[in-house]
Amino acid sequence: MRTILSVVLIAVLVLAAGCQSLGYYSQSVKGQLQVISRSKPIDDLLKHPGTSAELKQKLEQVKVIRQFASSELKLPDNKSYTRYADLSRPYVVWNIFAAPELSLRPYHWCYPIIGCQAYRGYFSKQPAINLAKQIKSKGYDVSVGGIRAYSTLGWFNDPVLNTFVNYSQINLASLIFHELSHQIVYVKGDTVFNESFATMVENQGIEIWLRKNGKFDELSWYQQNQKFEDNVLSLITQYKARLDDLYQSDLERSFKLEQKQTIFSDLKTDYQKLKTDFDFNSPWDKWFAQDLNNAHLIAVGAYYDKVGEFKKLFTKSGQDFSVFYAAVKKLAKLKKPERDLYLANLDTP
Prior knowledge:
single chain
């Protein structure tokens, strides 16, 4: 019943959105309905003789991860990730990030109920590419990327998807922990707050998961990987500061654009130097292989800019998830400047 009511609600929002946005909201409804219609209970699939052994193994892992998420991380105990859907495509949505050529201020899109976000998502690739071309033609940097999962914030029972079911156990758990976190807290119009919170829960959750399951070799690898990621994010932050100084300067536009390319080139060079201290392949390799621009930095910032601050809040909460969630919910009720100030001053006695 809740699913049906949610669909009706979205349909009403589509009609209320105006003709200009009708196409976008229509594809959103169609895409969500496809996800729902293709989902089947995991327990039924595990019993079905037509389900492959490989898929059964992954779905069994999901059940264990799902139970752990609620019992140990205090994440919502509901029907999310108790169903499976094969969408017959590699990504569930394609997200667009955008920023002016000489600014790190993200372009925002605003929606009913969920407020404004620093990205726009489509359930098929071509409309996302088309919009990206339109925005780029207006002088913006753009980034389009396939996304393997998203959260409906509890409006729907989010299923496991073919787009991520074959992840390694660590990555599968990471994704489920992250997406379930969005059902705990969601602040309208504050993408960085929402995503950084979920990323922190994901990271802490994996360490606890590995430790409690006695997987200490994997824990050591994960911690090494996290150390590398912290160094990468620190490097990106340094270069964002360089770019911001450039963009805020009184230099000629043509010179700014020239220096912008130099700074991005230097960033890639410094990343390669950083890699010499870590002997493993990293997902960041693919990110740095792109023709980087401001929009790519916006996308990274959305997920990581406040992770360190949320980690400090978790420590201040005695590493008790219930206490931590209560503190985050309290923060969510504040206005953005007050939230940001509180998180920034957590080191202050």
